């Protein structure tokens, strides 16, 4: 009987230690956010109140929601964060409570898997309106921490983005020139400079207001089609209100560029001039435009540097 009582006591002590370990501020189970041996990671789930994204490693690479190829650089950096993230300092109860009570604070849940087993999980609290880094917490009602990535001057919390767009390749056009059958470039404020190219494989027809049935420079036209092989954009426009977006898209675009392929498939890029704050006033951005693809509601930022090869006028294609 005495032996049974000792065994029961030991079991109770183990249970109490387990419970305490999950709730004491610096219990190992509550203060480790990194993943040992990141090569085990084959799925990452990031979600907030409105969005969720699943990043999955398949035999031929990482995918976004099992549908789109993921940006390899973004995935590689995220996995390096998961391997190297460390605690910088604890967070006071007041700071933590103030953050939770702020309506602009976003709560993000992260789960890291090896096959179907969760090997790491935590919560992130972010608020872009306050001058304070993100906070991580292993589970509700445990000690929250500020974390850091040794060797990097960045907030690790900001890289756990639940928006699927962030993880997909930032590409406008990625076309083999031989697939392109038609191109229609329209300037809205300079209609005389608009043009079309019809490619039937054997020859190319060129159409514009001032040049029709002219001899087209086949070398220039072929070079132009090759520029559609790789046209990236810089980033999506996040956290923009519907009213702000409408105020941009209700204006005439700077230009539209429609590409029809042999599938047939149509890709249509619309661009608008971008305004930025400079010297205390709004001015036109001379380095970047805003764009949307195929009438999508989402806007992205694209550099003139990446678009310049496509922005031509009719004279570029005509033999003098």
Index terms:
alpha+beta; single chain; nine-stranded antiparallel beta sheet; 320 residues; 35% strand
Structural class: alpha+beta
Mean pLDDT: 86
Q: Which spans of ≥5 residues are poorly predicted at pLDDT below 50?
A: 16-27
Number of structurally distinct domains: 2
Helix content: 10-25%
**Portion in beta strands:** 25-35%
Alpha-carbon Rg, integer? 27 Å
| Secondary-structure element string | HHEEEEHEHEEEEHEEEEHEEHEEEEH
If strands are numbered along the chain, what order do they take across the biggest sheet? 4-3-2-1-6-7-8-9-5
Please count the beta strands (DSSP E, at least 2 residues each).
Answer: 19
Q: How far do the termini sit from each other?
A: 108 Å
Q: Characterize the biggest β-sheet.
A: 9 strands, antiparallel
Give a structural overview:
By secondary structure, the protein is an alpha+beta fold. It folds into two domains: 136 residues; 147 residues, no CATH class. It has eight helices and 19 strands. Strands 4-3-2-1-6-7-8-9-5 form a nine-stranded antiparallel β-sheet. About 4% of the residues have low confidence.
Question: How would you briefly describe this protein structure?
Answer:
The chain has eight helices and 19 strands. The chain has helices spanning 2-23, 28-31, 72-84, 93-101, 164-167, 218-226, 242-249, 304-307; strands at residues 43-47, 52-58, 61-64, 68-69, 86-90, 106-114, 117-126, 135-137, 145-148, 171-173, 180-187, 195-199, 204-208, 231-232, 235-236, 255-261, 266-278, 281-293, 300-303.
